[in-house]
Design brief:
The chain is an alpha+beta fold. The protein has three domains: about 100 residues, Rossmann fold (3-Layer(aba) Sandwich), CATH 3.40.50.20; about 70 residues, ATP-grasp fold, A domain (Dna Ligase, domain 1), CATH 3.30.1490; about 240 residues, ATP-grasp fold, B domain (D-amino Acid Aminotransferase, Chain A, domain 1). Helix content is about 35%, strand content about 25%. The chain has an eight-stranded antiparallel sheet, sandwiched between helices. A hairpin with a 2-residue loop joins strand 10 and strand 11. Helix 7 packs across helix 8. The radius of gyration is 22 Å and the shape is globular. Bound molecules: ligand MV4.
């Protein structure tokens, strides 16, 4: 058991974790860089420690600074949030060596899922459907061409240490394969210090559908349904919804059962997300994320489950407070990521927020650490906040989203609010007919 939690993050997610802690009677320690002295997570936490200069590598990513903050405040647990140290297996080992509880999965599971080749083999072995392709890594261009000819073109060369779209090369035919293989390998070595690559059949028009799972230390595993995160730009999610407009109750139960069985066999602990590409009624595993995700609130809104509280309970050794049959899927939820970026060029727009008005009313949630007068620093991601709306039906949810977007005011910086205003009016968004390439096409068509 622990009663003081250090939150090793910043922004809206630090606040999200702080809120869960307070409702559980836990005290909180915020850590912050010198650029975040006036941040809301620092103001609200019970204690705070400055851990370094603005650069993340010298503050939010610095093991020694964070461990020192935990030691001097007597924090007995660390929640990493998302990004930063959330999927760093070495950090988990260091935390454990200090006798502190890491609120998250084991270092071994983080390490396994960080290696995309090992992850794919491991999940395939426990019954999760994967994209057809190489069995493990591919070592030579000759082998790559041979495999490409077997599985057919287009084919994809992916980096074992990649993920999130980094280190991928498409080959449209046998002639392109040798080049794609060599480029992918060279780029992977430069970017990740690891030149291991693997090959997959390229899926042309899939949706990105991910399944949320949660596992306790007593062997209980439950799935919390799916999120459709197909609306992305340059591998950054923009708009996410749950349930997916294309997944029926029967499909949800079927893939949910497969995933739960697999996660049990892996002995996984904590919250996790199994990412799939979904095309022509079939699921194909691509990656597993071993962290709380940015878009977790849409799952919380339809299941009424507080994922952060459950993470903390699991870390305290408690069993899940619900069983699979207790998990309801109620209505529909959508999340819009509101970034401090130009809505057309997506150029970052740091600076001072002048006016800030949060929308409200039934079914509206705003997860944000911003406020009027807050100065968005240029050093970190540009997320100002996440607007999450819930409705009884998808139609009601979209009407509510349009209404809430209309109420929201953020002035002084450019934001992506106008993009969301256009998305909520787009015919394909309203009909739910979109794939992973839809948003890039929409943006290209609206240029000039
Ligand atoms: C793919 C794919 C098509 N076929 N794999 C990009 C990020 C990484 N997580 C996996 N990605 C993809 N893998 C096969 N075999 C297309 C993508 C992809 C993508 C996936 C999800 C969401 C947006 C995307 C945008 C471009 C490419």
């Amino acid at each position: 058991m622990f009663d003081k939690v250090l939150i090793a993050n910043r922004g809206e997610i630090a606040l999200r974790i702080h809120r869960a802690c307070k409702e559980m009677g836990l005290s909180t320690v915020a850590v912050h860089s010198t650029a975040d002295r006036d941040a809301m997570h620092v103001r609200l936490a019970d204690e705070s420690v400055c851990i370094g200069p603005p650069s993340a590598s010298e503050s939010y990513l610095k093991f020694a600074a964070i461990m020192a903050a935990a030691e001097i405040t007597g924090a007995q647990a660390i929640h990493p949030g998302y990004g930063f140290l959330s999927e760093n297996a070495r950090f988990v080992d260091v935390v454990a060596a200090h006798g502190i509880t890491f609120i998250g999965p084991t270092a071994d599971h983080i390490r396994l899922m960080g290696d995309k080749i090992a992850a794919k083999a491991a999940v395939k072995d426990v019954g999760i459907p994967v994209v057809p392709g190489s069995d493990g890594g591919v070592a030579t261009a000759e082998e790559a061409v041979k495999l490409g000819n077997e599985i057919g073109y287009p084919a994809l060369v992916k980096a074992a240490s990649g993920g999130g779209g980094r280190g991928m090369k498409v080959a449209k035919n046998a002639e392109e394969m040798a080049k794609a293989f060599n480029t992918a390998r060279t780029e992977a070595k430069a970017a990740f210090g690891d030149d291991a690559v693997y090959i997959e059949k390229y899926l042309g028009k899939p949706r990105h559908i991910e399944i949320q799972v949660i596992a306790d230390s007593h062997g209980n595993v439950v799935h919390l349904g799916e999120r459709d995160c197909s609306l992305q730009r340059r591998h950054q999610k923009v708009f996410e919804e749950a349930p997916s407009p294309v997944i029926t109750e029967a499909i949800r139960s079927e893939i949910g059962e497969v995933v739960v069985k697999a996660i049990k066999r892996l002995g996984y602990l904590g919250v996790g997300t199994i990412e799939f590409l979904y095309e022509d009624g079939e699921f194909y595993f691509i990656e597993m994320n071993t962290r709380l995700q940015v878009e977790h609130p849409v799952t919380e809104q339809i299941t009424r489950i507080d994922l952060v509280k459950e993470q903390i309970r699991i870390a305290q050794g408690e069993p899940l407070s619900f069983k699979q049959e207790d998990v309801p899927f109620i209505g529909h939820a959508i999340e819009c990521r509101i970034n401090a970026e130009h809505p057309e060029t997506f150029a970052p727009s740091p600076g001072t927020i002048e006016d800030f008005h949060a929308p409200g009313g039934l079914g509206v949630r705003l997860d944000s650490a911003a406020y009027a007068g807050y100065k968005i620093p240029p050093y970190y991601d540009s997320l100002i906040g996440k607007l999450i709306v819930h409705g009884v039906t998808r139609e009601e949810c979209l009407l509510r989203l349009r209404r809430a977007l209309g109420e929201m005011v953020v002035s002084g910086v450019e934001t992506t609010l106008p993009l969301h205003q256009r998305l909520v009016d787009a015919a394909d968004v309203n009909s739910g007919e979109y794939d992973i390439h839809w948003l890039e096409r929409f943006l290209a068509n609206s240029e000039s």
